[in-house]
Amino acid sequence: METIKVAIGKFDDLSIEIDCVTSLSYLLWESMAEGLNEANDTHITAAFMLCREIETLQNKLHEINEKMHEGLKEVRA
After folding, report:
1. What is the pLDDT of residue 53?
2. I need a surface site. Which of 13, 26, 43, 76 has the fewest CB within 10 A?
């Protein structure tokens, strides 16, 4: 049960990061829309950084998923 609590705590912390990425994605989208689809170096760099951050979030979600599975196995045992 403790493993599940730890996983839930990690997910709670991760939800803040997800909110930040969502907000940054929206700002990037709006900025590009104002530029009439002309992506400049700043937009390209920001999009790359967002992509890397999304990959990091995905990896963290997989780790949380594994912890949840471990916790469920403990509860069933």
Report:
1. 92
2. 76
Nearest C-alpha neighbor of 27 from the set 39, 43, 6, 13: 43
Whose structure tokens read 């400049």? 40
Identify the DSSP state of 51: H
Q: C-alpha distances in angstroms, 10 versus 26, 44, 62?
A: 25, 31, 11
Which token pair is 39? 């992506």
Q: Consecutive sets of 10 residues in the chain, 77 residues long: mean pLDDT of each?
A: 89 90 87 71 85 93 93 88
Query: How far, in Å, CA of 25 to CA of 14, rounded?
Result: 16
CB 43 within 8 A of CB 31: yes
